[in-house]
Every structure is written in structure tokens, then in C-alpha cells.
Inverse folding.
């Protein structure tokens, strides 16, 4: 989420997104869960677990990452994109369309 007077949100040509401590905590928690899932897959491989079991866990990690990405995209559209449009930068719409294509 952006803030109106934050130098981190708009510092010249460098693009960055200021996130609240609450949002960082939420995203970090989700990433830690995903990290645990990946470590679990690694352990499954080390233990020669059945392929189906490993593949199911890989699918779960993939879905977790997609959900996280969608959450970040939604926030991006509600904050960064709106701010850019309000500042007269309608080219951001094309940027978002290209981003969505990359995420598919």
C-alpha cells in the first residue's frame, strides 16, 4: 500500500512500493508457509516418497504462489495503478496488461 508523502513510494526513476508493516507481516507469513512447503518437498525427495505425493505437494506450492501473486497484483492495481492514472500516466494500463499476461 502506498502513502501520499513517502519518499520510498516515488523516488525519481527508481520504482518501489512502500508496504505497511502489517502488509509486510502478512506477505512474509505467507512466504514462510510456502518456504515450509518447499522444504517439505525437498524432504519428500530425500525420503524417496511416491511420485504422486510429491506432485500433489508441488501443485500446492504452485497454487500458494499464484494466490500470493494475485494478492500482490490486486494491491498493485488498487494503489500503484490508481496513483499513476491520477497522475496522468494512462500508459500504466498497458503495463498492467503485460504484467497480467506474464502471470498467466
Amino acid at each position: 500500500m502506498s502513502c501520499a508523502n513517502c519518499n520510498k513510494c516515488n523516488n525519481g526513476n527508481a520504482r518501489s512500493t512502500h508496504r505497511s508493516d502489517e502488509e509486510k507481516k502478512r506477505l512474509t507469513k505467507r512466504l514462510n508457509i510456502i518456504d515450509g512447503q518447499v522444504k517439505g518437498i525437498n524432504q519428500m525427495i530425500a525420503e524417496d516418497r511416491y511420485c504422486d505425493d510429491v506432485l500433489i505437494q508441488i501443485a500446492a506450492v504452485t497454487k500458494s504462489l499464484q494466490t500470493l501473486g494475485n494478492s500482490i497484483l490486486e494491491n498493485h492495481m488498487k494503489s500503484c495503478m490508481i496513483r499513476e492514472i491520477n497522475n496522468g500516466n494512462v500508459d500504466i494500463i498497458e503495463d498492467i496488461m503485460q504484467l497480467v499476461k506474464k502471470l498467466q
